[in-house]
């Protein structure tokens, strides 16, 4: 039986529910593969609109990235709207830009409507190491304001020290519509909401084959789901189930540590307003306080999603570079998780045939996008596909050299960006 990875989140989850394994043949309108945010958000929107829904999950609800991530509610996409403006036509870009802040609103609405306890806090900071990154943040503020975000504030070198106790940054951008959550408790709360609306969730039930056609059938080792539509939401953990999707995306690992609980005084000194922070490097560090005042610190990327041998050894030095004052603080938890990278770093969205839909590959920033994905997938299944098609129109390309070359290619790319980050160019 696959359990949640050993993490601070699993140790502090507020529900210990085992959903049953699928042992039967069931019928429904929509079968969803994967119980991360994409699958759960899609299920909730569909159930709210009267569809019958079954989710099959290979392991546990929130087993994947959704139950292990940094917990940062980051707006927009892993490449920003200006890149989208240059990639697709004006109409598509304005549709996608208008959706860039919707995911965060959906999370807050879900938390309020279903009473989900997940330590939700408002406020996220992008921190700049140099003037070039600061200029980028100024441009990002103008861009995001153009698309309706009026909750932004530039922080100069003095102001940023008021929100994070390190002298590494020259400034930053505060987004009060960003924020942070306990990611696994959000996923578990959403799963409980799915069940409360009559949805079915089966754990330990991997989809091992999809018979496509008018009435597709999703097979698990001991059961099957016959439905009108299938939504594939397995992201970095999907493997080769849908071969068409594999060459244009690559699973990557990123690592997180959690300290022991800090004293109230120390926690307040580090992050007085309790905002989350991510820096502006390509290979970025991200951190925040948990509900019980641990510092949750993430960073690093392992291309190809191999598990690194000693996570603490990789991440602790990064944490101490930012906060040398934590030298004596113990690390209680260290874990890794996989996100799905695309070459453009934009989400990979579309349909195969008339009734098999997918959304994946949000490349590192997916907490907000995956919640939006649920909404646009549900719209598309109801026949209103304009917003879905705006995402589906984003071009995607195979990683050069094909699957075998994905890892070396991206590792080269990472080395290049690491050098750029270090030189501040
Ligand atoms: C360590 C880490 C830190 C991150 N930090 C942040 C952050 O701070 N902010 C942010 O915005 N984003 C962050 N991300 C990215 C974000 O977590 C993801 O983009 C998002 O959670 C993806 O959700 P998902 O539902 O698409 O995929 P997942 O959450 O990975 O869910 C996919 C699910 O599908 C299941 N599955 C796969 N194959 C099958 C199958 N064949 N049959 C049945 N089930 C299957 C898996 O078991 C899994 O539960 C982070 C990611 C990681 C790994």
Automatic annotation (TrEMBL):
<dbReference type="InterPro" id="IPR036188">
    <property type="entry name" value="FAD/NAD-bd_sf"/>
</dbReference>
<keyword id="KW-0560">Oxidoreductase</keyword>
<feature type="domain" description="FAD dependent oxidoreductase">
    <location>
        <begin position="29"/>
        <end position="379"/>
    </location>
</feature>
<protein>
    <submittedName>
        <fullName>Gamma-glutamylputrescine oxidase</fullName>
    </submittedName>
</protein>
<dbReference type="GO" id="GO:0016491">
    <property type="term" value="F:oxidoreductase activity"/>
</dbReference>
<dbReference type="InterPro" id="IPR006076">
    <property type="entry name" value="FAD-dep_OxRdtase"/>
</dbReference>
<dbReference type="Pfam" id="PF01266">
    <property type="entry name" value="DAO"/>
</dbReference>
<dbReference type="GO" id="GO:0005737">
    <property type="term" value="C:cytoplasm"/>
</dbReference>
């Amino acid at each position: 039986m696959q359990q949640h990875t050993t993490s601070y989140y699993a140790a502090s989850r507020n529900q210990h529910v085992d959903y049953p394994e699928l042992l039967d043949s069931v019928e429904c309108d929509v079968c969803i593969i994967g119980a991360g945010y994409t699958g759960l958000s899609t299920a909730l929107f569909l159930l709210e609109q009267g569809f019958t829904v079954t989710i099959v999950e290979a392991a546990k609800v929130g087993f994947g990235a959704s139950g292990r991530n940094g917990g940062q509610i980051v707006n927009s996409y892993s490449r920003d709207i200006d890149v989208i403006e240059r990639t697709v036509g004006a109409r598509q870009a304005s549709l996608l830009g208008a959706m860039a802040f919707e995911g965060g609103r959906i999370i807050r609405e879900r938390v309020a409507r279903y009473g989900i306890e997940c330590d939700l806090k408002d406020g996220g900071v992008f921190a700049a190491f140099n003037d070039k990154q600061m200029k980028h943040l100024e441009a990002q503020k103008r861009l995001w304001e153009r698309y309706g975000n009026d909750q932004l504030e530039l922080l100069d070198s003095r102001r940023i020290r008021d929100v994070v106790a390190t002298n590494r940054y020259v400034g930053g951008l505060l987004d009060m519509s960003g924020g942070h959550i306990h990611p696994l408790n959000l996923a578990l709360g959403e799963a409980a909401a799915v069940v409360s609306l009559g949805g079915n969730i089966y754990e330990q039930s991997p989809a091992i084959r999809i018979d496509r056609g008018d009435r597709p059938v999703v097979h698990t080792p001991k059961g099957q789901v016959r439905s009108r539509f299938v939504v594939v939401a397995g992201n970095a953990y999907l493997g080769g189930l849908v071969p068409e999707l594999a060459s244009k995306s690559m699973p990557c690992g990123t690592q997180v540590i959690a300290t022991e609980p800090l004293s109230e005084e120390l926690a307040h000194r580090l992050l007085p307003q309790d905002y989350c922070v991510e820096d502006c490097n390509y290979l970025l560090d991200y951190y925040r306080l948990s509900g019980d005042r641990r510092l949750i610190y993430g960073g690093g990327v392992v291309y190809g999603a191999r598990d690194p041998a000693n996570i603490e050894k990789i991440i602790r030095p990064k944490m101490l570079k930012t906060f040398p004052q934590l030298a004596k603080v113990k690390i209680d938890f260290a874990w890794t998780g996989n996100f799905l990278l695309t070459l453009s770093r934009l989400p990979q969205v579309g349909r195969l045939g008339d009734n098999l839909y997918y959304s994946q590959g949000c490349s590192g920033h997916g907490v907000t996008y995956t919640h939006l994905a649920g909404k646009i997938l549900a719209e598309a299944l109801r026949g209103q596909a304009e917003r879905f098609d705006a995402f589906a129109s984003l071009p995607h390309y195979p990683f050069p050299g094909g699957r075998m070359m994905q890892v070396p290619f991206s590792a080269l790319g990472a080395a290049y960006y690491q050098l750029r980050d270090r030189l501040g160019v």
